[in-house]
Design a protein that fits this description.
The complex is a heterodimer of chains A (320) and B (124). By secondary structure, chain A is mainly α. Chain A contains eleven helices and no strands. The radius of gyration of chain A is 24 Å and the shape is globular. In chain B, helix 1 packs across helix 2 and helix 1 packs across helix 4. The longest helix of chain B has 32 residues. Chain B is built from four helices and two strands, in the order αααββα. The chains are: A mainly alpha (320), B mainly alpha (124). The interface between A and B is medium-sized, with 25 and 21 residues.
Chain lengths: 320, 124
Amino acid sequence: MRTRSKQRDIGPTSGSLLRWYPARWRARYGDEFLAMIDDELGGRRPEMRYRLSIARSGLNERLRDAGLAGNSVPPSEQVRGGALTVLCAFALFVVPGVAFAKISEHWDQSFQRGSRHLPAVSFNLLASLAGACGVAVALAALALLPAFVKFVRAGGWPAIRRRVKWAVIATLATAAVVGGLAVWASHLTNHQRNTGFGWYQLLFVVAAFLFAAAVAGWSVAAVAVTCRLTIGSGQLKVGGSLAVLVGACMPLMTGAAALWWGSMATTAPWFLAGTPMGSSPSPWAANLLGVLIVMTIASGIGMLGVLRVIRSMRALSMSQ
Amino acid sequence: MPRTTPNGSRQRPNDPPILILTSLAGGPKHGHALSKDIEGFAGVVLGPGALYGAITRLEERGLIEPLESNDRRRPYRITATGSAYLAEAVDEMQRLAHEGARRLAVANKASIPRRGPRIAGSPA
């Protein structure tokens, strides 16, 4: 334990630098690390480059501590870390996924002539893969349910209560706003709902942010719970395999969304631009571009998690 | 043979783990003393982040160990495993250096132009 005089030695600046590191690392190396910083700086304020270098090292240690990089933790922890990376990537993917569902609403009613085959194939592929991912996440949650019950019975609830509470609050707020929007929308014409920017559109944006907050809240809660569970190797393999499935589906869904956009741009560009049927507007849509960018980022993060799971599962089966 | 570093990457003479092991081969040192020593013999400045990242990996692999200290500055020393690892790394680097020097010598020999017959009266 640190003495009072030693605590006084740690200035507020060097103390803030230590916050980049995970708690376990701080407990082991914190004091001597700060002593070295104090020796090096001699009371001077650290430069930005110095701070950034420590931040990078601290984040690297955090990744290692979470089992997302290096071999500092056992393979079982690495599988868990990789699977949670995929879960977080999927949560990020859900937000543009829902936006895509909204953008593509009633797309099949916009055809005057020409083939709707390619848009239909890509849209159905996307919807099927999204359904498969949803089932996979639900199955993973079911597989971990016994471990979760055991964790709660052993008195673990207080450790996760705050995160679950925020997720529930965000979900209830989303439900209330979306419910209000649905009632309001039933009293508006199609033109009033989709043109201009008034109170209805503002509430729509609020609902979108609340939805994103609810998804983020449940993801944080899921990570907090999963990190604390005692998971058997069988459950770990099931969870890891499902994570690989979800992670592999995300790039396919992104590709399907891009294909749908491309095929709609050639066969029914007026749907994308919201112009009358038969017109020839530009097929570029900023909202779809944004959706695809976030989907691509989420797919990339998901693939990193998939690679981590595959590598760690191999090491896990070799160690058994 | 230590073909990879404790981080799993390819061995290089200026890798922080090799520099730390080399420094500790001369006796136990704490973080700041290690940094100064490494700067002195290798000309490499290791900041606290890089230094302690490497110390963490080396300790995990049992190549170095902390010593008891009443001070915040905790010294480290190289273990027997660490010495063996460093010896193999040095051996490998020496072999590489010799091979490089040998090949350079051959290349230099081949690139020296042959002198033609001297013409009487011409400057040497």
